[in-house]
Write a structure and sequence with these properties.
With about 500 residues, the chain is an alpha/beta fold. Helix content is about 65%, strand content about 10%. The chain has a four-stranded mixed beta sheet, covered by helices on one side.
Length: about 500
Amino acid sequence: MTALRTLPRDGLASVVVFLVALPLCMGIAIASGMPPAKGLLTGIIGGLVIGFLSGSPLQVSGPAAGLAVLVFELVNSHGMAALGPVLLLAGLIQLLAGLLRLGGWFRVTAPAVVSGMLAGIGILIVLSQLHVMVDASPLASGLDNLLAFPGALIDTLSLANGSDALAAGAIGLGTIACMWLWDRHRPKRLRFLPGALIGVSLATLISSWLALPIKRVELPANLGDAIDWIGPQDLASLANPELLVAALAMAFIASAETLLSAAAVDRMHSGPRSKFNRELSAQGVGNMLCGALGALPMTGVIVRSSANVQAGACSRASTILHGLWLLALVSLLPSVLQSIPIASLGGVLVYTGFKLVDPRAMRNLRQYGRVPPLIYIATALCIVLTDLLTGVLTGFALTLLKLLWSASRLRIKLMPIESGHAELHLRGAATFLRVPQLSATLADIEPGTHLRICMDRLSYIDHACIELLEDWERSARLQGGSLTMGRRTALKQRVEGRRRRVLAQTA
């Protein structure tokens, strides 16, 4: 009965999500170097299959811009046939991770790395889709796209390739302008309509009316023709270590993006909370199915999910219905989709890419010190200059180095109190890395001094530092000095207990 009562609201929300998903599914497929039908197929599976299995009822799954770069690199290096086996293995990893209740660990990702990853992906999408906007083919890397774009722009403006590229560029820029204006000046009554749909619709109508000679979406007459079933011979390609690494990277990035999106969706509504392990397993099933059918990888996507919540969705029925609308349109009205200019979809992705490079993320990271913004910048630049996996690993490596540095910092302050008495204040973590610093301070203490060590703000002390203090105490006792601890704490008891044992052995 509850489902029937909320069906009208879910039905309206599903239409909104469908309108948001339609251009994105095709645009992300093109950005991934794949036919648009592959993106639509993933969107349909994300609605009809994952909608039933999802652990986050209001989250919408489908092709994601965050994986477009990884897929493009994979297809460019190993061919389209390699995507199916890699995606099948990545989905299996996600499924097992969910069954083993590892969902929470996929969310253990430093915000600076996540924001830097999204920024790097956004820059790569912009650099590649600028070529698509002038009906040219993007190159293999972000740096190549950046270096080649001035030449492509000169060719377009000089009409070296005829007026086709100029017309395509005008359509792409018009789509971006329309989305920008709609996002800022949309009427309240029409706020449920996404700017991407408005921009693509107007671009399609104008280009058809003017009969512009530009590239348009190509779809098979039958959706079944877009399915490339994976065969046993395809699985043999997983013996290639590069494909195994690609599968691990895809599983991790897709899982992190999905679960971070689910956490964000939970903050948008007061309904049932997400079950992360179930969501992770559902994504694994979806990606295994996409891999078996030769479609694009999927994740939980925040743009479609936020549109779902804002449109008033109450249950998973909205997600399921949006997949049904995608299937109906592709099956019954493919000619509508075939009239869409590819340059217009490129404009949608350029606009989306710019939004991924969010300056607010940099401002938010600054409040945690100078290092997080540097990790953000380093991750993004490394992704642009090398590849997605190298950039993410660089971000993680820098985060670990920062953690090690923070965990090993020790502040030492020696304070003389009166003749023959002094206090040594330790703050932070006393590890073997700080033995030279601590040893130098102890060497400056006058012989015969009665030293009191204040450990109230000491979080950790390791074996090397304990032995150093023991050695100093033995020397001090021979010269009439002593060593005592500050406030009695568990840490102090640990040091004193070891010190007594050592002294008893040497007595």
